[in-house]
Amino acid sequence: MGRVAGKVALVSGAARGQGRSHAQMLAAEGADVIAVDICADIETNEYPLARPEDLEETARLVEKEGRRAHTEIADVRDRVALSAAIDRGVAEFGQLDVVVANAGIAPLTAGSGIQAFVDAVDVDLIGVLNLVHASIKHLQSGASIVITGSMAAALSASNSGGIDAGCGGAGYGFAKQIVAHYVNDLALQLAPQSIRVNGVHPTNVNTDMLHSAPMYRAFRPDLENPTREDAEVTFPFLQAMPIPYVEPEDISELVVFLASDGARYVTGQQIAVDAGCGVKARAWRGL
């Protein structure tokens, strides 16, 4: 307990799913949390996104852990509004030590138009850049930046295990590949200041993104209107371990470690929480 005691963490996409889990576990380990979410839908993203009451619930869970929560409704695509939101949170808590760039969408609708590609890239890539770049001015030596990637980056790059998910799926895979490259290069730039940058790459995670109609169709293109039960038959095919998905808390455990001083010399890493998805999809490439 107390691995991030005394720290202030910024989490995007914090209203539910992985973001809520990260916020709650960081609070349980001693951090105050600035929780940011759009709390509105994006037209090309077929499944509904979080609502203001979801963000309020995240704040309640943080406060239940005995820590302070500052919430902001902001779109990560809007650098100006996002920067102002971050500044308000930092003004309230007086510092910023951890940045978790987690917000993301998956408009995986086969046959969708180019706007789905644009939206996926704008949220999953530009949104990451906006959050990190608006935060850097607040960070000091010892700070940690954790960026949510995806095993989709590795699968897209290797053309292994991909699914037909239209323009939005192509945008998602592209964004996650570039995010991984960004982690590598930003880590080099910030290392002289002892600010760390790492990428976390999950496989399927038990969230609303996975349990959605477009995701079910992407995994079961043989069916017109697949159900959750239909899709869950195929979910385990990605992983080497016999599971359909990991839990948000499994990702949060790694996020908290990377945010903590226990990882003070860990930077520039691409770490998968994937139940063997990567080793199943890619041939051994040596050290």
TrEMBL record:
One of its GO terms (molecular function) is oxidoreductase activity, acting on NAD(P)H, oxygen as acceptor. Keywords: NAD, Oxidoreductase. CDD domains: SDR_c. It comes from the Bacteria. The keyword Iron does not apply. The keyword tRNA processing does not apply. Belongs to the short-chain dehydrogenases/reductases (SDR) family. This is NAD(P)-dependent oxidoreductase. It comes from Mycolicibacterium hodleri.
